[in-house]
């Protein structure tokens, strides 16, 4: 996949027309700056954060925080103790929407309806090269 379609300024915000559907995927490509402390990719409904995908690089070991923020209140964090999006390297993230969960680098069960998602927000010290929406042609693969 050719990921470098453009370099978009960050914070990046764009509407998702018609919301998300089961079987849809969102691709986010870029490169996290070597001195970044975190990256944030949010699927939002207004100011509510339905999916917060948040790789952090504090200290030596990196991890990813997944969470939901409803009416200004964060829920319980789900942490993935891996560094799937290392600093200084190009990345291609695919967020797949299924009936039960989002599948990014880990699985995050829905806490709010995915059909409510109305925009995607990307923030951090990151060069952002692509944000694309796809409907998978083959659905019965998971
Ligand atoms: C907070 C942080 C937020 C968000 C949240 C996720 O500590 O300030 O930006 O990442 O954790 O649980």
Brief characterization of the structure:
The protein is mainly β. The chain has strands at 12-15, 24-32, 39-45, 48-56, 63-70, 73-74, 78-80, 90-97, 101-103, 107-109, 119-124, 126-135. The structure holds beta-D-galactopyranose.
Q: What report would you give on this structure?
A:
This protein has strands spanning 12-15, 24-32, 39-45, 48-56, 63-70, 73-74, 78-80, 90-97, 101-103, 107-109, 119-124, 126-135. A hairpin with a 3-residue loop joins strand 9 (101-103) and strand 10. By secondary structure, the chain is mainly β. The strands form two sheets. Strands 1, 3, 4, 5, 6, 7 and 11 form a seven-stranded antiparallel sheet that branches. The protein has no helices and twelve strands. It starts with 11 loop residues before the first strand and ends in a 7-residue tail after the last strand. It has a single domain (12-135), classed as Jelly Rolls, CATH 2.60.120. It binds beta-D-galactopyranose (GAL). This is Galectin. One of its GO terms (molecular function) is carbohydrate binding. InterPro entries: ConA-like_dom_sf, Galectin-like, Galectin_CRD.
């Amino acid at each position: 996949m050719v990921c470098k379609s453009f370099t978009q300024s960050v914070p990046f915000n764009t509407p998702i027309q018609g919301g998300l559907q089961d079987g849809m995927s969102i691709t986010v490509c870029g490169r996290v700056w070597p001195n970044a402390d975190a990256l944030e990719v949010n699927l939002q409904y207004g100011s509510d954060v339905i999916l917060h995908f948040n790789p952090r690089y504090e200290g030596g070991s990196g991890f990813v925080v997944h969470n939901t923020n409803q009416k200004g209140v964060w829920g319980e964090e789900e942490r993935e103790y891996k560094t799937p999006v290392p600093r200084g390297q190009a990345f291609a993230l695919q967020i797949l929407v299924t009936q039960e969960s989002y599948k990014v680098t880990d699985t995050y069960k829905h806490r709010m309806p995915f059909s409510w998602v109305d925009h995607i927000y990307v923030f951090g010290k990151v060069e952002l090269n692509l944000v694309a929406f796809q409907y998978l042609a083959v659905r019965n693969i998971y």
